[in-house]
Amino acid sequence: MLEEWIAQAEERWLPSLNGYLLTAFSSTFLPSHDHLHHLRVWKQSVRLLTVLDKLGTGVDYNLVEGCLVASMFHDVGLVRESGEMHGPCGSDMCKEFFAEGNLEKPAAYREILKAISFHDTKSRDVYAVFERGKTPGILNILSVADDLEALGIIGIYRYSEIYLQRGVALEKLGLQVQTNAFRRRSNLLNCCRHLPVFSSEIQDQHALLSDFFNLYNQQVLVVERPEKCSVGELGIINRLLQGMEEHIRPEEWADRLDPETAGLTVSSYFNELEEILKQGD
Do 119 and 200 fall within a single domain? Predict the structure, then answer.
């Protein structure tokens, strides 16, 4: 039944929700968290729901529908509030969407609003352990799906863009990302302890992100003018910062770069990022 429920929920909600997000982000350049990010988080939710259904956790249509709507609204509040209150803003925007469209609300509407509001609360109580015979909540699945999409190659980009937008200095960026990412990793591993395929992925993707910022932290300490550096890990972050200022989407950098000038580290990263982003379209 799960495949049918997913297809039913997508047919009912994806066209209107995707259109809403396209409009919402049309005047806000934040490609790391725009409509494509929301779609990627929904796809991560589908991966989780598929594994949880096989585990015997009591997945039903209301949970599937709730995860879809929550996934497509969880970060839309960033168009109004770039800080920690973007979750409640997104919940308000969800209310407006249903009120203005005079739409029938999903059965799990109240739980959806709560999940949107608190998805960025990275505390252990949000990450209830997935286990047989225990039905997960929408917030539980949304938080894990969002975090799975925040590690590895794409996580480097996601973290960097949102932290730079919030004014974090280049010298502090790496340590702040690592602190947050380590907490996510701990919560994810606890939550997914009975899901070995996810546990392995979490550790590998966190290691990739952490190794990147270890090298970044070393480089930013020795470069005389970090903001002018165009090579290495720091060169990648400066390209992302330039992209924010000049509205260059990250997937465009692969074609813009001269590999000989940018160096292997920079060109390889943006080629890999482009491939990952294409897979999520």
Answer: no
